[in-house]
Amino acid sequence: MTLSEEKKAARLAAIARRDQAHAALADIAPDRVAAHFAATFRLDPGAVVSAYWPGRTELDIRPLAERLHRSGHPIGLPVVLGRGRPLVFRLWRPGDVLEPKPFGLQEPYATAPEVTPQVLLVPFLSFDRSGYRIGYGAGYYDRTLATLRARRKVLAIGVGYAAQGTDRLPHDAHDQPLDWVVTEEGPLAFDGAKMSGAE
Asked: Which of 3, 33, 110, 188 has the most CB within a 10 Å radius?
């Protein structure tokens, strides 16, 4: 089986697990994730955080984004400029009118200021014990993280359901690992192949 075929199989399995978790936990997981995040991370004052607008059965991180906004952190939402290009992030405030996109996604309009995040809240279909993630296959977050990490240190925190975790995902040199994952069950930190809960 080729790497591409392995990733396709992993995506199909991950979508099924996420759909099941969402059906059971969508009402309670967002607040649990926000509470775990607040108890775990002490961000620099004014640090810019990228969030995402939930689509399909992704965990809704808007309660967390709103809490971070109230704490004085500018929030950027991802904007797709074109296939094969890194994402950019435009400023979002609760209540902003957003531009509808496919799959139920929404993006800030082009008039919103562009921001550069120091902390990224990253969606995924699945994550593994080494911190690798798999998405829908377009590679937007891998390119974005590679670009940002080449400039400065950033913190990449995956956000999703615990059921989306697995022991190992297929990956190659282009795949960018996460630093942490936060689920409704709590935070996980990655150090190479080592995974541990927060101290």
From this structure: 33
